[in-house]
Amino acid sequence: MPAPDFDAIIIGAGMSGMYQLIRLRQLGLKARVFETGSGVGGTWYWNRYPGARFDSESYSYGFSFDKELLQEWSWSEHFAPQPETERYLNFVADKYDLRRDIQFNSRVTAAEWDEASLTWTVTLEGGAKHSARFLITAIGALSAPTLPNYPGMESFQGRAFHTAHWPKEPISFAGKRVAVIGTGATGVQTIQEVAKDVGHLTVLQRTPNWCAPLHNRKITPEEQAQIKASYDEIFRRCEETFSCFLHTPDPRATFEVSQAEREEFWEKLYNSPGFGIWVGNFRDMLTDRTANAEMSAFVANKIRQRVKDPKVAEMLIPTNHGFGTRRVPLETRYYEVYNQPNVELVDTRATPITEVTPTGLKTAEREFEFDIIIYATGFDALTGAFDRIDFRGTGGRTLKEAWAGGARSFVGMMVPGFPNMFMLLGPHTALGNIPRSIEYNVDWVSRLLGHMQAAGKQRAEAGEKGTAAWMAHVMDCARGLLSMEVDSWMTGVNRNVAGKQQRVVARYTGSAPAYREWCEEVAADGYREVALA
Ligand code: N01
Questions:
Q1: Exposed e or buried b for every residue in 269-300, given b needs 16+ CB within 10 A?
Q2: Hey, which end of the chain has fewer CB within 10 Å, N or C?
Q3: Mind listing the pLDDT tens digit for each residue in 255-277?
Q4: Per its UniProt entry, which superkingdom is the organism in (predicted)?
């Protein structure tokens, strides 16, 4: 039987693919990465829309595995912008000479398992095929952009972009009539940046989100020295917190303290950088309806204070979900944008977009003319990137068939019926501060591969029993969360995608430490739930 072309094929050269390549080399394995884009970086390669930046502290986000790298790289801002992150990931690619094992401009369209030879065969767009013993998906959780389905979208004569397919050349908004559709974390970052020099901006909002100030600023030389001296502590803290951020829930419940104390605490959070207001709030804020309503009222008042036109302020205040039950977009003078005379907010729930025209778009009420339309309309999250590749496991069964009743995985990283396939950001893995989860998952997969090497094993398949136990735990974690009552990518809803209209338990909502504990027990137990042969 001919040996496969590679020991392992990795799909994707974002942060997870890059780190996995480094770890596979350390195991002495011959690996090849196939990447659709022309450079490394994944999310930070594709999402070059204006205003794209971290919402987690830069120094908690970068790779932690290399102490030398931590000292060599200096983040310039507490929440770094996309160009800097892309430069950082290229710096890492240079340092480790990663590109020699990465084939760019190569989209994987299919991957098929062959039981007789214990190999995966991967097909690229264009038809080329490559085989490997192991297949590692490093395809991201938010990497399959989705567009609305308005009639006439192709007819638009101006320029139109999805934020995740932003062109590499600079786009000028000066003197231009620009539309932004979508007000999630991406839309908010885009709007506040475009508004700086736009001719006229129209924001088409279907659902307002609860946003909170980012409070970004430059890192001073003193802070830089302090950060570089504290990396051990920074990453230790990320390891201990619920979602791997530097912030962690306050141990107090909302109504354990007086109203004055609550207000003071929330005021402090509102004026502090980063996600503290979301993931560092009172411990019951995302489970207790009354607590959540009071927090929502606090933020609603902030919006009323910041937006001059009371009618516009009310349009920006969410009414169908409470604070933090969807991802909280972090912003810099976002609400003040609506005080500009050249910015208009349109409620597309009241007056839906009916069609895109060659010169702009129409709503149920009006016709608009635009030079540029920006679609900040999000992603087919978590499973979308998997659906776009024709994965076939044992007996030719497709992953789509296996997941027809909802995605099922073993610790988010393996799927029964798909031997030797590992998902670095699969459904039901811990997400949170994603690079922290990526590093853990890459290490877990690499340890399993090392274990197989040592034991002379060639085939690993997650068992049904372990998968059922993991999925039961995933379902348990989601019980009682207010976020489960709300439509968002976090509950698997994307109204632009057929079959994604119903809420499901789409992600792991337990804590990252609990996730790791489960995975560690599996490893300590000799991977009993994984059939090794
Ligand atoms: O996507 P979203 P996103 N007509 O799904 C609207 C991460 N991220 O790209 O809410 C009209 O949140 C849609 O409206 P509705 C972060 O995890 C990280 O903004 O469905 N509107 C919504 O407003 C985030 O959560 C950073 O009613 C339509 C928007 O488009 C995730 O990426 C920065 C529409 C989509 O919002 C996704 O964020 C940015 C239609 N047909 C993002 N279809 C960092 O800081 C959709 N919409 C690292």
A1: beeebbbbbbbbbbbbbbebeebbebbbebbb
A2: N
A3: 999 999 999 999 999 999 999 99
A4: Bacteria
Give me ligand 1 centre to Cα 95, in Å: 34
Kindly report the number of other CB atoms within 10 A of residue 458's CB atom. Answer: 15
456 CB-contact burial (10 Å; exposed 0-12 / middle 13-18 / buried 19+) = exposed
Q: pTM score, two decimals? A: 0.97
Q: Residue 58: helix, strand or coil by DSSP?
A: helix
Q: Is the pLDDT of residue 1 over 80?
A: no
Pocket-forming residues, ligand 1, beta carbon under 6 Å: 54-55, 142, 148, 181-187, 189, 206-207, 327, 348, 376-379, 489, 496
Confidence of residue 2 (pLDDT cuts 50, 70, 90): confident
CA of 126 to the centre of ligand 1 (A): 32
- Taking only the tens place, the pLDDT of each residue in 380-418 is 999 999 999 999 999 999 999 999 999 999 999 999 999
| Tokens encoding 398 | 């497709």
Strand partners, 375: 162, 181
Ligand 1 nearest atom to the CA of residue 377, by list position: 30
Beta strands in 280-388 (DSSP E): 330-331, 343-347, 353-357, 360-363, 367-369, 372-375
Report DSSP letters for 449-514, one per residue: HHHHHHHT---EEE-HHHHHHHHHHHHHHHTT-GGGGS-SGGGT--TTSTT--S----S--S-HHH
- Average pLDDT across the chain, whole number: 97
Maximum Cα–Cα distance for the chain, whole Å? 74
Going by CA atoms, what residue is nearest to atom 16 of ligand 1? Answer: 185
CB 304 within 8 A of CB 278: no
Residues 312, 517: Cα–Cα separation, whole Å: 47
Question: Which residue's CA is the nearest one to ligand 1's atom 40?
Answer: 148
Give the model's pLDDT for residue 126: 97
The confidence score (pLDDT) of residue 324 equals 98
